[in-house]
């Protein structure tokens, strides 16, 4: 039977297509391991070798290798000789010796079943490797034996190779150089040793062949990423305007939101999302209509949130909670306190009626608190939402908060400052993903000035000098010969806050170190 790889045919080095041994080089270069086999005098000639192919096995590729083996049952032995950098040897070995165990994953799922077969994620026992269950150890009528022969850099590996293949000592001189020749097969060149050139047949294309002796293995499943990993409680958005903040919130949810199942259905959720709108303003009709927001409805919402009435068919509304529900016009009371003492830190309003809202079946406010504070000669507003619908409610709520802040600020005699919104449970209905992605649109490359300042980098003798500056003031100087040292010192001081800024700084530090090492002039981009 001829060895015909179904996957990665162009990455395998074929020796004898009719061989029964596969050599797995893990993270080591195939050419390096082939040279090692040559020094150990292991037959690697197509006419005499029992080795079918050499190939790597990095962190990925195990699924493809298993399907190659299942489709080529003539491979009886897998010899592992390579740098086991990521534990891929244990994953391969444990798959056959220990098998799989089912796991529950929220990060990924497999797309629609193949041929009516449900696909489940499994873990290779005693490893962290997650793999699909379309290929299982019991699918192999006789699993290949997995033999560990050592790391190529270990001096004993040559001896282990000779023992395994029954090659008597002495080995060829250690300085013999084996060069990969045409067709990917090595030739030997050394003093006193004849040059042997071996040309294998061309590699077969990636095809699937099913016969009685060559089963057709299951295809590779397609993986759907449910969300990108992050800390779901550590997202912060800072934008100038409401629309920019809303778009960023939707982006975070569509990328990092975790799927949860509520009584009302599935949601993508993030917790304790903090959004800062520095300069809340009413956008132009053109900008609002571009994201399907009706300016008239936003204006009406701003008017309604300041009223204290409640309709007979309503169980609550924010204006009623703020102006009437507790027997107090809380916004007017906030104005009175701030007029008496602009630095008052008790200007806090709770909209949550604990006695009622913890016991009723429906009709509870999502907006649960407001906090007004004079800060840097402006009136800031912090609002807390218990739950928050990111698609439809979010822009309405922010425009409503802008109206509340403006009403109080005008009567206190302060200009409005930043609005900060904390959403304990921020959710998006997965069925609304198409609308959310439309609002987000194409995210442009954007550079935001870091509020923590900037860095000026120069070379000072044999050191890199980094000045942390804000405006015309130098806040601190950092000096070191290595960019890595500067990286750690700046990170330790938390001297920057913007991801783009951090990546830029890293590029400049590396560029400065290279220039200093090579004696060239350095000019910061």
Summarize the structure.
With 525 residues, this protein is an alpha+beta fold. The chain has helices spanning 30-39, 62-70, 88-97, 156-165, 242-256, 285-290, 295-304, 318-323, 330-340, 354-357, 393-412, 433-440, 483-492, 499-518, and strands spanning 13-14, 21-26, 51-55, 77-83, 100-102, 108-110, 121-124, 130-132, 145-150, 177-180, 186-190, 193-196, 223-225, 236-239, 258-262, 265-277, 348-350, 367-375, 378-389, 416-428, 454-460, 463-470, 473-480.
* Number of β-strand runs: 23
Beta percentage is 25-35%
Number of helices: 14
Poorly predicted regions are: 175-212
End-to-end distance, in Å?
60 Å
Number of domains: 3
Give the biggest sheet: 7 strands, mixed
- Residue share in helices? 25-40%
Q: What integer value in Å does the Rg equal?
A: 33 Å
Provide mean pLDDT, rounded: 88
Given helix and strand content, the structural type is: alpha+beta
Q: Can you tell me the overall shape?
A: elongated
Structure explained in plain terms:
The chain is of the alpha+beta class. The chain folds into 3 domains: about 10-225, no CATH class; about 235-440, Thymidylate Synthase, Chain A (2-Layer Sandwich), CATH 3.30.572; about 455-520. The chain is built from 14 helices and 23 strands. Strands 14, 15, 16, 17, 18, 19 and 20 form a 7-stranded mixed β-sheet that branches. It has a 5-stranded mixed β-sheet with strand order 1-3-2-4-9, with helices on both faces. It is elongated and about 100 Å long.
